[in-house]
Amino acid sequence: AMPCRVLRRAFLGVSYFLVYGLLLLALALGLRRLAANLLVVTAQVGLRALGVSVVVDDSQPAEPVGRPVVHLWNHESPVDVLVVQGVLRLPSVTTASLHLSRIMPWFSASAANAGHGLMDHRDGRSRTSALYRASATLAARRQVMLAPNGSLVTPISQRVSASALLLARKHGALIVPWTFTYYGLTTSAEALYRPMRLLVSRLKAPLATIHCRRGRAEDLGLPEQGCDRDTFVSAVQAYYARTTVGSSVMVRPPAPG
């Protein structure tokens, strides 16, 4: 079973890059819609190559039809970007270009073509630019997905950006939290921002599952009027403290020496 698993995932890993090559060709030819669809397929093949299955529970959306929505999620794994792009298919703002660009040429252009904004969380100007792009995306597509903690290195318990609150105020949007629960997904510290190392490390690993549960806007308990930054941050941290107990990704420390 083990050799078959390795061969299957290795084949899917090669397929991942082949599909992405077709995406770049479509983008070069000006076939923007096809390129956007191929990004979805690329992400789906990537999840299979990593041995990760995704279960989505979005059975309780209760937002009024047509109301803009800012989606939040607890970003704890480098695999999340594939889930957002390939399964949830929601336009997003992420830091994925910082690591995926190492193995996927012109990833920023490919992601932007599909409605995804990319930023460097270490650069204030990049964060501001990403917020403007998220605002434009929300205006055009009526929804956008953000990770309130901004990056993998900082958990929500330590940092929550007020970007979602600013966007909600500007566009009259609701803020809807998603909870990603991880089962059997262990990532080494060295692989967090090294996608090729992550791919290789998952060749022999057992199947992992990410359960994505969509909450409701009222679950955050935000006041309808006059919500300030501190209230928003406390509400988001309290929500994810309740919903992510015992579900975090296991990160193995770097190997000694």
- Calculate the terminal CA-CA distance, rounded to whole Å: 33 Å
Strand order within the widest sheet? 1-8-6-2-5-3-4
Oligomer: single chain
How would the global form be characterised? globular
Number of strands: 9
Question: In terms of per-residue confidence, which ranges show pLDDT below 50 for 5 or more consecutive residues?
Answer: 251-257
Count up the helices: 9
**What is the mean predicted local confidence, pLDDT?**
86
* Strand proportion: 15-25%
The description of the largest β-sheet is:
7 strands, mixed
Considering DSSP H and I runs of 4 or more, what fraction of the residues is helical? Answer: 40-55%
Using only CA atoms, what is the Rg?
18 Å
What is the H-and-E element order? HHEEHEHHEHEHEEHEHE
Q: What's the structural blueprint in terms of helices and strands?
A:
Layout: H1 2-28, H2 32-49, E1 52-57, E2 69-73, H3 80-88, E3 92-94, H4 97-100, H5 107-113, E4 117-118, H6 124-141, E5 143-146, H7 163-171, E6 174-183, E7 186-188, H8 195-201, E8 208-214, H9 229-243, E9 250-252
Parallel strand pairs: 1-8, 2-5, 2-6, 3-4, 3-5, 7-9
Antiparallel strand pairs: 6-8
Helix pairs in contact: 1-2, 2-3, 6-7
